[in-house]
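ERR on first pass: missing label on line 2. Operator R.T. fixed the label and resubmitted. Corrected input:
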Amino acid sequence: MIELYLDTVDFEAVSRFNACLPIKGVTTNPSILAKAGVGVNQALSGLTDIIGKDARFHVQVISQTVTDIVEEAKKIDALPYDVVVKIPATEAGLAAIKKVKKFDIKVLATAIYSAQQGFLSALCGADYLAPYVNRMDTMGSNGVEVVADLQLLLTQNNLDCKVLPASFKNTLQVMDVMKLGVGAITLPVDVVEQMISHPAVEPAVKQFSDDWQGVFNTKLSYES
Ligand code: G3P
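pass 2 clean. output:
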């Protein structure tokens, strides 16, 4: 089954959607944490309270040189949670991924803007790839096509690596990548809201209720 992540550290939103969806965990990045004013330790502790101890978290390194990325990755991996270390797929990042994988640390290659960049990250040993779908769309390339190419390359090369598309602005983008059979996905709060609501649903449910009460008043189904 696809791994479903929320791309937010908003505790209230995670609590709301964890109650009604099979959430695997949360993906973070430095911008998300900085915007919320919440550090990694506070975020993971609070999110574990909400989702449970089996939650998986994706945490990005801040370091930018190969040696520093490797050292930071080891520290992130040592946190008392199920953590995947996010490493931007730059030249230094690819070198770091090769080294980090020797320590059996789970890695997500992030900031992926092309199929070739993602594919090379997978060859370096990444466990997850995060192509930025909407950001590619807004830059004139086709985010869904890049995900399709990545998925094909992983399959052709029999690589044990999941595509975890990120950066969405609408449900069409989400459905298009899910139909490609991606192994994971991370969704922003506003897009999850769009996915679970439809203007026709509430009126339909109200009609059922009105029809029922007109005949059976306050009786429940099994009491009728
Ligand atoms: O981690 C990357 C993802 O959060 C990017 O999303 O909406 O900033 O393009 P966005």
